[in-house]
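Anyone able to model this chain together with 6-O-phosphono-beta-D-fructofuranose?
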Amino acid sequence: MEIINVHDYDEMSRKCAQFIAGKITSSERIVLGLPTGGTPLKMYHYLAQIINENNIDMSHVYTVNLDEYVGLDGSHEASYRHYMQTAFFDKVNIPDENTFIPNGKASDLEKEAADYDRLIEELGGIDLMIMGIGRNGHIAFNEPGTPFDQGTHVIQLTQNTIEANARFFESDDEVPGYALTMGLQTMMNAKSIVLLASGEKKKDALFRMIEGEVTEDLPASILQKHSDVTVITDTEI
Ligand SMILES: O=P(O)(O)OC[C@H]1O[C@](O)(CO)[C@@H](O)[C@@H]1O
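re: yes, here you go
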């Protein structure tokens, strides 16, 4: 695991955006795994800026998002589809049909999960996966206790995650209790991974992820077993 220490959130976001832009321009075709949450917001800002300033072609870029709330569709302001459109997709010239996010309104969620894994396979797998980390060590919505060998699935969110995400809703009660998320196996299949972590509140999870035991109690610890993980962080560990 390579750890890149930066001074602050801004530098972390800029570095990551530059790295992704470099990969996009140097690839004939690329599949990106993309996160939501507070952490990557500024990274998307810089990435859109770099793409537009340099007229970077996006027709060969495909994106698969990590997760979506069950019960929300793209018209809901807290849905991850809405987040991605406003934070990134609407700002760059990526074809709509190249962007994929699990459908949280699917009538058969199990089927939607299986179809999502099939889609990733048909795209040829994920070349570069960007992710954040939750305070309890979750990645995507894989909460502590999630088996390491799972593909995309439905998960019940913990109270900790509901509270952490309540800031995107009017109140705690509005945060959906379930989500569709890529599984840890899906994420580990990505060829390269970049994990972003900013701030003291992530310090404990980050430390355990890097130094601790590989355990399902801390989902992110599985990344110790991946051969190409870069962590960009402003948190001293
Ligand atoms: O970036 P934030 O908002 O701290 O969230 C951390 C993690 O929580 C999630 O948003 C899910 O709760 C993940 O997608 C993200 O990696």
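The first helix runs from residue 9 to 26.
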